[in-house]
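During the reporting period, we have paired protein sequences with backbone structure tokens. One record among many follows, to show the layout:
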Amino acid sequence: MIHISILALKNANYASIVDARSVFKKVNELLRAQGKNDAFNVQIVGESREVITEEGLVTINVDICSNEVVTTDLIIIPALRGDMLSASYQNRFIVDFIVKQYKANAEVASLCTGAFMLAFTGLLSNKKCTTHWQYAQEFRFFYPDVNLVDSKIIVEHNGIYSSGGSNAYWNLLLFLAEKYVNREMAILIAKYFVVNLDKITQTPFIVFNGLKEHDDKEILQAQEYIEQYYFEKITVDTLAEKLFLTRRTFERRFKKCTHCTPLEYLQKVRIEACKKKLEFGRKSIDEVMVEVGYSDSQTFRNLFKKITGLTPFDYCQKYN
């Protein structure tokens, strides 16, 4: 039997705790209906007997305290709310439990913004993970040694699992149900909870917001200029000249602050503008393409699909 420890954390998203518990409990229920034994022993684990979350609205009575758990097979880190660093720090006393169990061959799965807590443990250093797209830039800023693959719904690296934004954690829970039981069970669970089983990317849902929580005033000016005049012809040389910097210095500082090259930043700003025009406007795709600064149709379509995961036409069909 697989022992699962779902962490009750301060500042946790209570729904992610309940949903994780519900999935594995439902697997056991379905197995019993088939005349089979339970697959999972599911426990809510906390630093203390009672954990208060959701700004004091919810008190969780845990099944067992972390210092009483001898061994476990899978640790589930729920999504966090509020300021991510503060939320992680408030749960710092459970870090030793997570690290100790992982080193004893337990696997660890973070749901959505739970990736911040997972990174806080140090276990993600030089590994891949994903998280909610809205927090991607912030995550990269605070944890530059982690390879964030924010386009993915699910990422696995050396027994560490992570999921994308909000409801994407359902896909990770289904993935784990399939891993520990079988595909048939994952399909049954997906049908029961009415979840799309095989979503693999969150790129269509990403809204680009350039990272601006840095102290480089010149780079901030460049970001603001790009966001204001994205539809014009903008070159790296032009931006560097405006700031009285050499191109090499400008590119180095821009990448350090934003985790994007100036060209990548311009492309993301343009595609974000294009998405909004396609969502709410009535102009053709070619008209919108020109309005955001592109003239070559094939280049534009390839870039749009690379960033969003959809063609302009498919995106328009989905969101207009």
